[in-house]
Amino acid sequence: MLMADEMTLFEKRDDGVAVITFNRPDSLNAMMPIQADAIAAKLDDWAADDAVRCVALTGAGRAFTAGGDVKAMAEDPDTASGGAAPSTDEAARNLASWGWKLSGKLHTLPKPTVALVNGFAMGAGMSIALACDIRFCSSKAKFGTAFRNVALSGDFGGSWFLPRIVGASVARELYFTGEIIDAERAQALGIANHVAPHEGFLEAGLDYCAQIASGPPLALSRMKLNLQRAESMPLADAMLAEAMHHTLSSQDEDHQAAAKAFVNKETPVFEGR
Fold first, then answer.
1. What mean pLDDT is predicted for residues 214-236?
2. Partners of 54 in beta bridges
């Protein structure tokens, strides 16, 4: 039986990449509410840590994460909403809070996030992968909304993320049928940004994350915020916000150094200033 602090592993690497690993391989990394608290706290720490420039998520064993613990749900129906609550409204708020600690924070973190999908990403696990900015997948990756199989409707923001990635019609199909799709189809639909051979997948994925982490951190953070705002802003407002960020970036030392490096045909080193 794993202790609470063993269910999720955290690593901060020297190349600017920080890694979260779901670590309940015997249950396909099915998630427990206590993990969300630990992950949320670590994401808050890394958001303020200039040494962290990209956050990656992956899973131990055969799965990224299978989402909720169905075995626990069978034993206690309250598990599906994150635990017992005195009312339906409060149970829903608790579940939304649990989801925000993972999907919400990953989507709004002011740094790029990459799901390194090594195997099964099911239910809430698929939602979490979709919440990340990019999905770098093993050839053995599998995605499925899966909620219909346990007569649930979906959580962790999947119904918000999926249609924005694949379109409304395909999102409905994937929810209504619960179809499990392989890495090749996921890439064709735009769910998987990259698919790598399973052998050496994690190393390739971390190298990819390191490439992102080597970029200009202030500009990357502003890019992400631009794209988030574009999800809900009118065009004119989005363009003004974009122009403000572009202007701020032009005043950064990183921009000035990069412009000189470009002229001199050199590779810039970004310091985050």
1. 94
2. 17
CA–CA dist 96, 19 (Å, integer): 24
CA distances from 36 to 58, 101, 109, 147, 266 (A): 15, 6, 15, 20, 43
Domain count, the chain: 2
Q: Which comes out higher in pLDDT, residue 262 or 27?
A: 27
pLDDT in the model for residue 1: 61
216 pLDDT exceeds 90? Answer: yes
Residue 186 pLDDT exceeds 90: yes
CATH of the domain at 149: 3.90.226.10
Same domain, 149 and 254: no
Listing DSSP states for 107-154 in one string gives: HH-SS-EEEEE-SEEETHHHHHHHHSSEEEEETT-EEE--GGGGT---
How far is 195 from 192, CA to CA, in rounded Å? 7
Domain residues for the domain of 242 are 217-263
Residue 167 lies in a domain: yes
| Element of type H or E holding 19 | strand 17-22
30 in the same domain as 140:
yes
Q: Is the pTM of this model over 0.85?
A: yes
